[in-house]
């Protein structure tokens, strides 16, 4: 049988260095050996070349053999029990005796392969009690700290005591995965790295993904010679073995060279996962080869768990005081009352409006005016920012500590205001409130030039070899806004919106109050004019009629005929004026009627109307036919006026060709005025056989003073049907008319059923 290694010899090149396939190196580190078992048959499909060094069996003797045949049934059963107990990277290591030697093993599955990694058990392991004491002591240290930074410093110290590494660093990532040495404990003779920053390229994306999967990574000797992994036959030329979760996985040559350039001989890296993301690392460096027993590694890994379990708590403690102060300022500024637009001038001068998010300046744009205090841009610049963010955020909210990243045109002014919190106050314009922070110019100390992470030279690809202090001056960047500050600003913005809405409502109420007073005053004047027109003018008209009548009776013989004609016309004009004034008075009374509704029998109303119009009906030889009418809710005298006007109108506009006939009927059952109207109505129809009208005038005939015929043909003021419409509006009903010229007209009136 032929065997072939699966070493990935093209693991890194110029094209793939940013996506280097570090999870499939095809080799391991030599401080243990690896077996890859078929998950179903437990046949050995993969074996590292150094198996002979540990169990005196060469890979050629192991590949293709069954695990039980190689190591016995009891060892196989022990492995199966461990797998069935849920073994995935468990802190419970599996101890196996293979070929007469004791090994501590880690086991995991990878794409149908059970990967077993075995390391010789230390014959003189560190006592469990000693590890426990160190951990207990660390727990005591935890209770003595308040901030996350203090805790991380103790973790670095405790981890170094447990592991014995020369340097232990707590490495924290920013949002772009640039790293900062947040805490450190090291030998006194070593140059400290505390506070140094490392670019995100030092730990590329694929490496960060592996750190999220495999929480512990060990390199015992950076000068190790990789041990190839062999497959059981030559048909697996392109077969890869995913070693993402492997403890022994061989390291990227780029990373090995990086450690060489730093002078590091061995490393241990523990992932710090917070909210399912890589928050940071515990990075342990030793300046000579160093291995740790699996038990000690687990004890060190526990330090990482301590940190991640405390991140939320410690960050909360650090933010608590800020939160308390911002809420105190928020409560104070919420007590400020906005009574008018001028109140904004006093509001922005309130110290608490700056304290609620620890800003250096604030501006409020309202109704085109800018109100501001503190360190702010000019009024024109505030308007520009407000207009820009109204469009950029679609009138919502936004915050940044580097304004020029989203508003590059503002670069010339970033020194005064680099950070902003923006909240819109109106979805229809650029009204808003904006808090500002100035530029915080600072120096960032990088461990070497961050722009030179991977270098290509005549030797090929290599990581940067300079770790000399490289300083970067950060400009146009403000101190970041903290979560309590952002929440406090948002809370006040919503509160301010409510205050503004109340202010606008108050302004509208005041405007309507003044309009109402003006309307009341105008109505009062109109009532006075109406009183004059309907009362004071009646007397002169009666005198004109009386004198005209006397002249025509007593002085008829002495007055020329032309003068008599003029007197007759004057008397007729006075009669028309008197009729018009009477109708106007009736119209005004209906418009202002506030009488209480009561049950009204329309049959009784019609009998009264017919009695009053008896002479008119008789003179015109009209026939008025009234069928049974319903009982409705209404005002009796207005209903009497309604039907009197409608009947009189039908008689007035009767045809000379036939005697007037007027039919008044009620619908057999309630009806809707329109399909969309849920209300039911009693419908009364007044139908005549008079002169009718063109359909185009069906609505306009109800307008006051509207006449379809000249005064010489039909007498009237043009108020009657308008009066009927007002009466129906007063009863919350409707009136409509249809007609055909020379055939007649039909009026429909709708009374709501309560």
Automatic annotation (TrEMBL):
E.C. designation(s): 2.7.13.3
Enzyme superclass (EC): transferase
Keyword Hydrolase annotated: no
Catalytic activity of the protein: ATP + protein L-histidine = ADP + protein N-phospho-L-histidine
Phytochrome chromophore attachment site domain span: 147-305
InterPro entries for the chain: GAF, GAF-like_dom_sf, HATPase_C_sf, HATPase_dom, His_kinase_dom, HisK_dim/P_dom, HisK_dim/P_sf, PAS-like_dom_sf
MF (Gene Ontology): kinase activity
UniProt record similarity statement: In the N-terminal section; belongs to the phytochrome family.
Protein name: histidine kinase
Organism for this UniProt entry: Flavobacterium suaedae
